[in-house]
Amino acid sequence: MEDAMKLRYALATAALSSAAVGTAVHTLHAQAKPPVYMVAINDITDQEGYMKQYLPIAQKRKRNTVPWSLQEDQERRLTALSQRVAS
Fold it and tell me: Are 29 and 52 within one domain?
């Protein structure tokens, strides 16, 4: 009788601990977000149409979805560096 109770407790403990480990692994895995890079290579045949119709919409979408771009980041760093050198 005691062996059966010990077995039940052991199985319950194993099930709960494996559920806890599984939840922790799933939570940690969900937090890791890989970086996303976007490279745009455009062959423009109609410069005026591109500047008036496409570019404003594309820039607006980019601002709404991408918090920063590599070019903007480099510009910020260069500005900060030039301010340090000037002072």
Answer: no
**In-domain check, residue 17:** yes
Q: Which domain holds residue 65?
A: 47-86
pLDDT tens-digit map of 17-72: 888 888 877 776 656 666 667 677 878 898 898 889 988 888 888 777 766 666 66
Flag whether 51 is in a domain: yes
Phi/psi of residue 37, nearest 5 degrees: -115, 140
Distance CA 49, CA 55 (A): 9
In angstroms, the CA 87 to CA 80 distance is 11
Cα–Cα nearest to 59, from 44, 72, 46 = 72
Please check whether residues 52 and 82 belong to one and the same domain: yes
Q: What is the pTM of this model?
A: 0.34
